[in-house]
Amino acid sequence: MGGKVRCFIPCLVDQVMPEIGFAMIRILRHLGYSVEYDPAQTCCGQPGFNAGHWKESRQVACHCLDVFNSGDGPIVSPSGSCTSMMRHHYRELFEGHPRASDAARVGGQVVEFAEFIQREGRLDDLRGHYAGTVGVHKSCHAYRELGLRELPMALLRGIDGCELVEPEGEPVCCGFGGTFFVKFPPIAQSMGRSRLLSFTALQASVLVVNDPGCVMQLRQAAQREELPVKVLHTLEFLDLAMFPREAVSEPQR
Amino acid sequence: MSRNAEFLRQSAVIAVDEVHRGKLDKAMRNYRVAVNRMVDQQFTDWEALRQQAAAVKDHVLGHWPEMLEQFEQKITERGAIVLWAEDAEEAREHIKRIMSRHEARLVVKSKSMVTEEIELNELLESSGIQVIESDLGELIVQLCGEKPYHIVTPAMHKSKEEISVLFQQKLGTPPTDDAAELTMAARAHLRQVYVTADVGITGANFLLADEGAIAVTENEGNARLTMGCPKVHVVVAGMEKMLPRMADLALFWPILASSGTGQQLTSYNSIVRGPRQANESDGPETMYVILLDNGRSHMYSDPRASEALRCIRCGACLNACPVFKTVGGHTYKTTYQGPIGSVITPHLRNMKDWQHLSHASTLCGACTSVCPVAIDLHGLLLENRRQATQEQADDAFWRFAMRGWSFGMRCRWRMEWGRRLYRWLGWLMPIPQAIRRSVPRLPAKSFAEQWRSKEKSSSGDTP
Q1: Rg of the Cα trace of chain B?
Q2: Is A194 in contact with B446 (Cβ distance < 8 A)?
Q3: Could you give the ipTM of this predicted complex?
Q4: From the candidates B364, B392, B437, which should be mutated to test the interface with A, based on the most A CB atoms within 10 A?
């Protein structure tokens, strides 16, 4: 059981929300994987790519290739957005570039956490307990670009005691959008608020989100709007439910 | 004020307007329910149909010049006059000449976004010609002195109550908030117009190459009267509206109706093959078809952006877009709003003034997922951003900022120092409060730093 996995820690996790990264490592180790992490890694290059600055994006992405190209085995990422960037968009970014084959190789090894667990057939090994109504926000890039659809829900099926809820219809964007939230703060904030309200209307006390960008966006929105909902990355939630600890065992105030 | 600054200013106001959001949420919810039901009922394989529709439109783009010529030849044989307009100005000149030739004083119009594109109403009014919109939604925005809010539902932002007050003031309608009564009031107002108008102007949803015909889709019967009653019928159509065969309507009518309004088919669909023929008893004596380029062939020459010429203007991407729902249609200040507008406006007008719209998207992909002709809308927004940067049409601040970002991100210690600088001196930096509040307090130690110290202390595989 298990094997060797490499971790991709997105810049937002590394620099803003390190807890998400440690939650992922605890869970992977719990499942018996030996975890490798190279602290030289920084960012996949998506911010520059999405802003239209491909030259700058490529420079950052090349650094990412340098870090991961030498190793082998799955690269597990806690972000569908970074995964999609490396798996899909590196193809465009490196089209006709000397490092196109490196990009294809590394991009092909990146796997989003839930995808990895499903691929390994370990969905039922994530066992834990959490009492309460838990909202599930499916992040757009994981949902539409990786096609994860129902996987964010399936990932939580081993956690008993909680009711998983989500608003009717297709998932709606939280308003993060990378540079979008910097360029158009009023729109981003209004979108964040509106998305949160659709979950508080369902009495969710915890909102589980599968991408670090969306976690930051919705967490800050909850704080700004003083809404009674705790926003957690899926991995933080799993970590909490699988390994209850004294200090954090009662997140519902 | 630059277009971008104007967009930002207006979006800040409307983004917190709860009444506006409430009206849109309600309209969109009804739309979504209807569309989902229709797509489920009507099509066994929606995805395959999208691909098929895309393939038909790509075939058109591959044979565009031939099809346009075929269309012109066929419809000219039956007596219609085809006029080509390279840009809005040329279209306006054609229309001015037609108006004076037929001594037009009163014009009735049915819904057409392309006439918005060439600002036809402003032209006619400045020439002393009265123009009346016959589509209910268009009539409402015309009476308000506004521009259409949405390419399919121009008065989406108006509540019944607002329309009631408007009709009391402008049409002398007795107070009522009954939608049917309001509709009948508009209808009574319009009936006289159809029979007295000198010219009827319509758009075309499709141009049919094999038949040399135009097809018009509507729900109120107003376009049919606009085309049929006046002595002169003028069609203004974008050149990209082409379909190879009349038979293709079997696919395009249902997908347009499903995606546009959640209907199986719209209530009225007309195919017009020319003016009144010798053996016919009614219809216009003269028919003009103005084929508008206005940037379309420029888009055609762009290998990626040309994909957007597939668009059939159903409005599905607007309705799916969370940004549209937040800022509404007027904030864009474009003829075509929402994702498709943000994709094509920089190409139809210019990149420099309009590229900011390509950034006004989170790239969530909701638009792409609903497009009935499978346009990669969010991919094209991304492509616009790249082009804007390449042409240096974006703003200089971001060029500078992205260089700094790239420099900082290529190396671990530079990234760490970036965080420390923000932690210590961020309060001194000229960062707007709104952005500050979207970022939490940064941790003293990054993941990598914490990892190093943890691994050193444990040096084992324990969690």
Answers
A1: 26
A2: no
A3: 0.95
A4: B364
